[in-house]
Amino acid sequence: MKKILVFGAGMSAWYAIKYLADNAQEKQWQIEVADTSQGNLDACKNDFPIVKTILADVFKDEEREALVKSNDIIISLLPAHFHILVANDCVRFGVHLITPSYITNEMARLNTVAISKDVTILNELGLDPGIDHLSSMNIIHRLKQESAIITSYKSYCGGLISLESSDNPWQYKFTWNPYNVIRSGSDGAVYKSDNQFKYIPYHHLFKEIETVSFQSVGTQTEENRDEYFDMYLNRDSTRYTTLYGLEETPTFLRGTLRYPDFCKKWASLVDAGLTSDKIEITMPDEMSWAQYMMGFSHERSGDQDINTAWEWLFQNAGNIALKTATPAANLQKLLETKWKMNPNDKDRVVMLHEFGYQKDGTKYILKSYMEAIGETATKTAMAKTVGLPLAIAAGLIADGAIKTFGVILPVIPEVYKPLLEALASEGISFKEELSVIA
Hints:
Layout: E1 2-7, H1 14-27, E2 29-35, H2 38-47, E3 52-55, H3 61-69, E4 73-76, H4 83-93, E5 96-98, H5 105-108, H6 111-116, E6 120-122, H7 131-145, E7 149-161, H8 178-182, E8 189-193, E9 196-200, H9 202-205, E10 210-216, E11 225-233, H10 240-243, E12 251-258, H11 262-272, E13 281-282, H12 289-293, H13 304-314, E14 324-325, H14 327-338, E15 347-359, E16 362-373, H15 381-398, E17 406-408, H16 413-425, E18 431-437
Helix pairs in contact: 1-15, 3-4, 7-16, 15-16
């Protein structure tokens, strides 16, 4: 019997736990879920009685170590900077680890010892990064096998509120970690365009955007239709050129999708300094948002969309939540109330890959689309697309289907092929559209 532990029972955990619980009896898996919140654990136990729940704190070494060494596979849904605590225990005790987060330098340094201990540490296996890697590598390897020359790679993803649940002027609500949303883009973005290195600094990022069309695949509408989104660039796209084997590809970029006009509204918050995470400010007790805002340089915009968005955001905002905090932290606290999903709200995930390539003297554009719609504020499309790949991979490791040891990414056929097949059976699949360029 294989023992699988899910560390963290928060926003992205429901579908991961469901998949493991649904397959536990047939596969003879023992499933445990650990969290610091008794409320999260009670909800988990209510939904999945077969699962053993454990109240535990990742910072308490004895608790964490005991949990790790008593299991065979760990899924870490903890905040990204906590993964390394679990990873160090995993290599020490010979336990496999799966996370949805980007590989850090600390994590990468565990590669040699993980290989020596026959341990798999599989990272970047959520939605983005995660499903984007699986689906991109599947197409890249296929095109290369067909002797195609890839000239352009563009990948976009958006975690959004569904149109039917969009009821504020920002057309946005939190469906994943608010901390990451508030600080998104703060390092700027690096990408390649026609073999030219490009850098966009943070203060320009939400202004130098593109419009991207997405073919809705019928989940939101009865018929397929083109829909348009704002797209801003992600971090350093070029770090993936080597990973994908596309070092010579002239154009390579990755971006985030939002509904139209979101970016100009968000840029106004950036310009005002409200998203800054660089300095803590101490304010008097009981300071209202109206008083707080007087300390920020912001001229009233001539853009009515921006003004409407600001009025909605700061109207009846009350007092700032944190006396000593960065502007970003106080903004996050405000948005956690303003952008909170209602119980029956549905979220939406959209992903698009666009490949330009040449084959036999002809130029093509291949678009690959994926769309998922959530059910409720708990059973979200975000939780499904982040959690399911992790749970499926845990099952593959338990069954011996993934045999590569070390600190790895889901870009090898051994990982992405069975994962894509399993995800398709869970309703997460891609539709392709091929066009010839005249």
